[in-house]
Amino acid sequence: MKVMVTEMEEGVKDNGASTPKSRVTNQCRVLLSMRLLQVLFLFLVLTFGISVVSIHMIKFLKIQHLDPVAPTTLISMYGRGTVTLDSFIRPPSNVWHTMNDSELLWRASMEPQRNGYPFKRVPKLAFMFLSKGPLPFAPLWERFFQGYEGLYSIYVHALPYYKSDFSRSSVFYRRYIPSQAVAWGEMSMGDAERRLLANALLDISNEWFILLSESCIPLQYPIPILVNMFFAYGR
Ligand SMILES: *[C@@H]1O[C@H](CO)[C@@H](O)[C@H](O)[C@H]1NC(C)=O
């Protein structure tokens, strides 16, 4: 603009001198159109710059705001995407878990607030063995439980370092719960019993809870008779 103004001033001065009026206006027009072109070019460059910046901004914002609600995150929160009743009522095939005592007791304290069940529930007897580790009468117990799958569940609390070697076909296979050290006649015995009970309560079908030691042996009553006795007594 400054250039144009000086030129115009010159023109005015010139005008005062001998230069014709038309020449000055022609110069002005050329200068004006060149300015206009410059401004247009600047505008074009600016628009291009803004569009490039906004494309990058959109990408950036997408990453910032869309990622936390991405479908993969939701799926990982709710397992395979659907919550089924089965996932609440089916007992795990392996009683091992990673909950500590306070988490376990909290989880075990949950109970339904409605009467009746919207599925077929077969009440079970929970046999809870408090043992140092080995179960010397395991063969007798195997015979006792044989043929009554679905009517009982077994939980064994052993010393933490004990590794059981029951075969896959045994009723005691993978029935050892996460345990802690227990000393005879001390409060840790009570804690172990509570731990056994809490683990048994995780299975909604368990209704009667029988605490046993490794030296207990089963007598003549088969499980169905025991179940009937318990439920008759319960009524
Ligand atoms: C169990 O774990 C929770 C969470 O990690 C912790 O806050 C709590 O103190 C733990 N309880 C025990 C008894 O270790």
From TrEMBL:
It is found in: Membrane. It comes from Camelina sativa (False flax). Pfam families: Branch (PF02485). The chain crosses the membrane at residues 39-58. This is Uncharacterized protein LOC104744066. InterPro entries: BC10-like, Glyco_trans_14. The keyword Glycosyltransferase applies. Keywords: Glycoprotein, Glycosyltransferase, Membrane, Transferase, Transmembrane, Transmembrane helix. It is a single-pass type II membrane protein.
